[in-house]
Every structure is written in C-alpha cells, then in structure tokens.
Amino acid sequence: MARKLMVAMVMVGLALAGGPAGAAPGDPFGGDDSGFIPPDAATQKCEAKVGKTLATFVKCVEKCHASRAKGKLAVTPVDAEDGCEAVCEGKYDISIGKLSAVSGCPPGCMSPVSIRAIWEGVLDGNNNQIYCDAGTAFGGEDTGFVPATAAVALCETKVGGLAAKLVGCYLKCHASRSTEKLDATGEDACETSCTTAFSAKAGALTGCPPCLNPTTLATTLRTTANTDNGLVYCAQ
Could you tell me where the DSSP H helices lie in the chain? Predict the structure, then answer.
C-alpha cells in the first residue's frame, strides 16, 4: 500500500510540474532565447514552418555569396549578386504566402518580411566573417571579398555552406523547444551540439586563410538566432 501511494504521489508531482520540459503554452522559451512556447498545436505548426522556410532562405542567400566568390556573379553593370538574393526573397515570400492560406497562419504578431530582412542584413553584413581574405570587394551590401585563389575560394564557400546548415540546426532546436520536447537547458545543449559539429567540420577544411575564425562566425549566428527567435515564436 505504501509503495502504491508513493508511485501515485510521484505521478501527481510530474503532472503538476508539466512534464520534463517544465513549461506551458505561452511561457517564455527561457535560457538565452527570446520567444514563447506556442499557445496551441496549430500555431506551433505554423511558426515551425516559418522557421523551416527561413532556414531555406538562409541557404539560398549563402549560395548567392558562393556564386559571387567563384566569379559567377558580377557587380557591374548591375549587381547580379543582389539580383540572386532577390530571387531568394521571392521564393521565401511565395512559401510564406502558401502558409497564409491556412487560417491564423502566420499569427498576427509575426512579420515574415521583417524576419527575412533581418536575416538577410545579418548574412550580408557579416559576409566578411566567411569571405575574409582581402581581395576584390564583393560590392553592394556584402562586406566580404572575392577570394584570390581557388584554394581559398573552395574553403570559404564550404564554410558558407556549413554556416547555412548551422543556422538550420539552431532553428531545429527552437522547433523542438516549441513542442516542449526540450526544456530550456536541453535546447541550449542542442544548440551547443550544432556548434560543435560545425566547428569540427570547418576545422577539418584545408586551404583556409588565417583570417577565418569559425568560432566567431558561429557565435554571431547563434546570437542572432536566439535574439530574433521571438520574431518567429511570437504568439502567446
């Protein structure tokens, strides 16, 4: 009898605690993330899809940077790299438009265009953290340089691709937190795992210039993902 009573008390305690995630719909993400646990399943599904669409957009922009680095996109007479990013913007907007066909998606607190614009600004403004080897400037809104050698170009474009995957990995951690599969501590651990994998792969590359610092790049991207998480998971 005493054993059954103890088990019952433990089960009640877990129920009151809200399960392993220790959060309820509408609660803050916690840790170093802005944003809120979605108030219902429909909102969570919508916000997670916006995050997934954002990850695809980031990958698209980084491909534009890689094309510029390889000399495939010229700055004059028109900035073809900016034109490439405009195509990425259009694809993102189309995907968001499809989500908007569902009632209540995206939620009224969200501005998908602002999310896209902020990330594009971060990627362009910190482009020199990837394409850092001094040479011909990318031009336009991008701060990096076109690599002077094929070896540097190969390394830097690979780092750019890894950086896009890193952002996607962070956003997946946020999606897991939004479903309460992870608590705030687990979500931070998830992000650290993303960073560790990125650093290992970037560190294994050859032909990289000494100016390249994957640790600084990862910090920039992780900080942005966490600070701006509330723009995606905004509903309470």
Answer: 2-17, 41-69, 80-99, 112-125, 150-178, 184-203, 214-227, 229-232
Q: What is the pLDDT of residues 185-223, one digit of tens each?
A: 999 999 999 999 999 999 999 999 999 999 999 999 999
Q: Is the peptide bond before 25 cis (omega within 30 degrees of 0)?
A: no
Query: Which two structure tokens, joined as six digits, stand for 150?
Result: 């094929």
What is the C-alpha separation between 55 and 162, in angstroms, rounded?
Answer: 12
CA distances from 216 to 56, 124, 128, 130, 220 (A): 23, 16, 12, 10, 6
Tell me, yes or no, if the pTM score tops 0.85: yes
Cβ atoms of 54 and 115 within 8 Å: the answer is yes
Among left, alpha and beta (phi > 0; psi -120 to 50; other), residue 206 is beta
Instruction: Please name the amino acid found at residue 88.
Output: C
Q: What is the pLDDT of residues 72-122, one digit of tens each?
A: 988 876 689 999 999 999 999 999 999 998 889 999 999 999 999 999 999
